[in-house]
Amino acid sequence: MTDPADLTDLTGATDPAVDPVEAVFDLDALLEDDEREWRERAREFAATRIAPRIAADFEAARFRAELVPELGAAGLLGVQLAGYGGSGAGPVAYGLVCHELEYVDSGWRTFVSVQCSLAMHAILAHGSEAQRTEWLPRMAAGEAVGCFALTEPQGGSDPGAMTTTARRDGDEWVIDGAKRWIGLASVADVAVVWAKDEEGVVRGFLVPTTTPGFAATPIAGKFAMRASIQCDLALTGVRVPTDAVLPGASGLSGPFSCLNGARYGIVWGSMGAARACLDAAVGRARTREVFGAPIGARQLVQGSLADALVAYETGMLLALHLGRLKERGALTPAQISVGKLNNVRQALGIASAARAILAGDGITDEFPVMRHLANLEAVRTYEGTDEIHRLVLGRALTGIPAFA
């Protein structure tokens, strides 16, 4: 029989120079060289440019727009983009970038999701060549910011009930309506606005945010995502030329294809937040002493850490599996729902367990855990609530839709 002490030696858990999570879970062995390089690039940027000020930014509800060009210069805004100033890396590389950014704060992974998976993807997948050439190189460089205006005030889970309209008036389209929870809208240069035309068909429009009648107001009073921006959007007689229409998008399949890309990033990103909380809990368990020994020597604490590790490893393996499916063009919406539902749920559980291990100090900004907990509650809601993803999976299993 193996001595438990031998197991401790094998994992390297007693050596402070060894990452205890990686000692148990060797994810690197499953990654390609270029994927590890992208992870390290994102990790360095997040650690040096975002992490030193993120607690203060969260407290002050400050979004540091000056970091956007730096993200572009690092190649982190065009990771998956082939051409148009992008790097052409694969889905797993993009997922690892999301993981490292959300390790520091969900708000910055959200920025990349809105810019890349939503706005840039909409232009790449559904735009004209002229639209791609005009916007994508500048967005990849961080010289222009995009937003994605789909959700409306009455609810985000039923985009088919959209009330924003677009009507033809000679050589122009006139857009009227309201949107809510639109990330980056007040700092964006261009908005991808979804509206119903006079036949009730959902269309996408590229609307420069300087267009008269376009008004974005940041939502105040948030307890989550405080280092990023979400807005109410009013569209009052907004006039755009006919070439503002995204020619490849007709119906809800257009915005849904973009949302699936953002959800994929969340699968990886949420595990980044979870990892930050797990790291904080492991560090505290090794150093805080109670009743004459580190709390990590207590069976209940070790049990909690073990459960968190298993949940984290499971989530990362799921993310990697979905990434490999995406590489082959085989990833389905139902599989993305599995990833988003499971990984955000598990991340919240890991964060909650870490908060308990940190005890009273866990609610302070000395540690990132409460900030991640608050942010993850927002992540749980956007890009499809738990309930919607459960219904997606229920339909996949039974063949019967139960959304109404």
From TrEMBL:
Named in its record, the pathway it takes part in is: Amino-acid metabolism; tryptophan metabolism; Amino-acid metabolism; lysine degradation
Instruction: Tell me which residues make up the Acyl-CoA dehydrogenase/oxidase C-terminal domain.
Output: 256-397
Under catalytic activity, the entry for this protein gives: glutaryl-CoA + oxidized [electron-transfer flavoprotein] + 2 H(+) = (2E)-butenoyl-CoA + reduced [electron-transfer flavoprotein] + CO2
The record places domain Acyl-CoA oxidase/dehydrogenase middle at 147-237
Q: Which PROSITE patterns match?
A: ACYL_COA_DH_1
Q: Among its keywords, does the record have Oxidoreductase? A: yes
Q: Which domain of life is it from?
A: Bacteria
Domain Acyl-CoA dehydrogenase/oxidase N-terminal positions: 33-143
SUPFAM superfamilies (UniProt xref): Acyl-CoA dehydrogenase C-terminal domain-like (SSF47203), Acyl-CoA dehydrogenase NM domain-like (SSF56645)
Q: Name the Pfam families on file.
A: Acyl-CoA_dh_1, Acyl-CoA_dh_M, Acyl-CoA_dh_N
Enzyme Commission (EC) number: 1.3.8.6
Supply the alphabetized keyword list. Answer: FAD, Flavoprotein, Oxidoreductase, Transit peptide
Q: One GO BP annotation here?
A: fatty-acyl-CoA biosynthetic process
Report the GO molecular function annotations: fatty-acyl-CoA binding; flavin adenine dinucleotide binding; glutaryl-CoA dehydrogenase activity
Task: Provide the cofactor list for this protein.
Answer: FAD
Q: Which family does it belong to?
A: Belongs to the acyl-CoA dehydrogenase family.
Name listed for the protein in its UniProt record: glutaryl-CoA dehydrogenase (ETF)
Species assigned in the record: Agromyces seonyuensis
